[in-house]
Amino acid sequence: MGPRTSTLPRWRALLSLLGLVCVLAAPALAYAELSDTTLQNIPSGADVLNPHTGALLSPILVPRVPGTPGSTAVQHHIADFFARELPLWRLEWQNSTSRTPATGTTDIPFMNLIFTRDPPWTKGNGDVGRLALVAHYDSLYKPEGFIGAMDSAAPCAILMQVARGIDAALTKKWEAMVESDDAGLGLEDDEKDTDSIYGARSLAEKWEAEMYPAQSTYETPLDAINLFVLLDLLGAVDPHVPSYFPTTHWAYKGMANIETRMRKLGLLATKPKNSFLPESHKAAESFRSGGYVGDDHVPFMVRGVPILHVIPTPFPPAWHTMDDDADHLDLASIDDWSKIVTAFAAEWLELDEFMSHVMKQEIRSRSEL
Ligand SMILES: *[C@@H]1O[C@H](CO)[C@@H](O)[C@H](O)[C@H]1NC(C)=O
């Protein structure tokens, strides 16, 4: 089976975004394509996602093992970015400790950073379904000095860029809903950042245990996640991302369709021989049970959360080597992923008519912070 059944090491950390969808219609039915104009308005992140100079990505390209100063610095980088650029997103920490085989009896801290943006009229009361966009932010403890540029610094920066890309449209949409008195529909958006799969497990347990008030549409925060999109090992050239699960193949097709349309419109920088997401036409019988990559989504998947795992198979050659660094990232691929995922989130959250904004501000460089 090769890498399809391999298990990624458990010494990892997550960054995720959650977005809520309308609860009155099943997402599959509500799913309407973005217009060409909206696709054309999806911002490029080529400046901020540059591995060497980009204000979002370059500060993450340091060793960031849980419990070390590098990890703390990256947490602050992410938290400061939201506080400064996206102040309407609320940050919640979910901290836990775990012992790992590599560290024996020492308790290692795992911290999930959860950024939530709720519509003004909701209080996270269990009546809104959520789209979770997730990546891990910590890095392997060995080889010493390991950077983990695609694993998963680049996916984290992509998610930060996605949050920037949909933020203004969320505001406009909710303002319009309040004005038209549709607010009772309950739309919400949320974002999360967590630690390794230790962190992921701890978070899944917490969300499973936390009960919403009786009468809510959803029983628990876990139950409210309509789709959990995990980005991993992205940022190298020529990714081949299969569709892993029949239950979320429709969402895979939605993302693949966005890629195809953006390529036709000339909006993507890469010109690969094959699409990043080439399995839209995968037949139902071609999904093998158990044929998935073990990763941070597993604690959520075993609790019944639908998963869209955006991870290439085969893994890029630099995987788990010292070569997984800034020099082995491909800016065009990273930026294309940021556009594809931004469009996917906008489509899911039904932001089409509110996406016509142009990204205004340059993100201030790190030296100005
Ligand atoms: C979790 O840890 C972070 C970093 O040390 C700290 O800032 C935060 O207040 C902690 N949160 C909780 C809920 O303990």
From TrEMBL:
<keyword id="KW-0862">Zinc</keyword>
<keyword id="KW-0645">Protease</keyword>
<comment type="similarity">
    <text>Belongs to the peptidase M28 family.</text>
</comment>
<protein>
    <recommendedName>
        <fullName>Peptide hydrolase</fullName>
        <ecNumber>3.4.-.-</ecNumber>
    </recommendedName>
</protein>
<dbReference type="InterPro" id="IPR037457">
    <property type="entry name" value="M28_QC"/>
</dbReference>
<dbReference type="GO" id="GO:0008270">
    <property type="term" value="F:zinc ion binding"/>
</dbReference>
<dbReference type="InterPro" id="IPR007484">
    <property type="entry name" value="Peptidase_M28"/>
</dbReference>
<feature type="domain" description="Peptidase M28">
    <location>
        <begin position="129"/>
        <end position="344"/>
    </location>
</feature>
<dbReference type="Pfam" id="PF04389">
    <property type="entry name" value="Peptidase_M28"/>
</dbReference>
<keyword id="KW-0732">Signal</keyword>
<dbReference type="GO" id="GO:0016603">
    <property type="term" value="F:glutaminyl-peptide cyclotransferase activity"/>
</dbReference>
<feature type="signal peptide">
    <location>
        <begin position="1"/>
        <end position="32"/>
    </location>
</feature>
<keyword id="KW-0808">Transferase</keyword>
<dbReference type="GO" id="GO:0008233">
    <property type="term" value="F:peptidase activity"/>
</dbReference>
<keyword id="KW-0479">Metal-binding</keyword>
<keyword id="KW-0378">Hydrolase</keyword>
<keyword id="KW-0012">Acyltransferase</keyword>
<dbReference type="InterPro" id="IPR040234">
    <property type="entry name" value="QC/QCL"/>
</dbReference>
<dbReference type="GO" id="GO:0006508">
    <property type="term" value="P:proteolysis"/>
</dbReference>
